[in-house]
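Handout, page 2. Input:
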Amino acid sequence: MATSEKIIVTGGAGFIGSAVVWRLNELGYDDILIVDRLDETDKWKNLVPLRFAEYIDADEFLNDLDLYEPSVVFHLGACSSTTERDSAYMMKNNYAYTVELCEWAMENDIRFIYASSAATYGDGSAGMEDGTENLSSLRPLNVYGYSKHLFDQYAARNGMFERIVGLKYFNVFGPNENHKGDMRSLVNKAFDQIKETGKLQLFKSANPEYKDGEFGRDFVYVKDAVEMTLHFLGSEVLNNATGALANMRATDTRGGLYNIGSGRMQTWNELAAAIFKALELPPNIEYIDMPEHLRDRYQYHTQADLSQLREAGYTADITPLDTAVADYVRNYLVPKRHLGD
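Output:
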């Protein structure tokens, strides 16, 4: 017997997934099926304040797809470790799982929105323009980025982007990432480090083109990333929605591959300054050698080209870095709150 949930969020207990559920709850929507793998981390705590109809393990879900008749699937579940070396696991979990889920969604006319990654751009030498025209020139630096890139290529080769949406998330930070261990953002790690030692360690540059702390990333607050993600719900979903969700404006774009970021590259020094400012402390930075295993696989500069996102109708302003860091630190890290608490 088919279930009635109209929105499915894979990775719904994880960082971006739980934030999407939180925002849907804020909009008065809780007809949601969460799909995930709960493990030995505390990511289950992300679910506690949220409202949703049902939870199911990711493997059980894939075995019983015929039970579900959603309007949209947000496929945000993946192994996101950029240092993972088990290539077979990464391909099965990130690539093959996505292929099967996407093909089912397309066969059943279900809107499919999935997480790709800025890691697909590698060192950025081939540019960071989204869309499908330059996919063949991209060279990811790790197997995580490659597993995401492989599906982007698969979808493009099979003409799927006429109907599905891929989102290339850049460096997302914010509440609900505590469970991510070494993959937590610098803001999260710095908060703990500064509390314990009074200072923050940053990597020295191993590239002569960049001074210590003067290389950086496109840092985007998770609340902004969620707004960009929900922009692609699609009018066919919103037309059947009730409450605040029905008042959202969504793009009429049927599909595509889009960057999700701030559109700015800001340095690690700038980010560190924002963290110390949020904590009302003077900056105290120590530069340490970059680990050998990262030197050949390190991105020194990422910056999302948001032109296609803007062309798709997304008009909201991006939260300034200082404002976003202050909100995260003061309203979530200090009081130890999750989204929805």
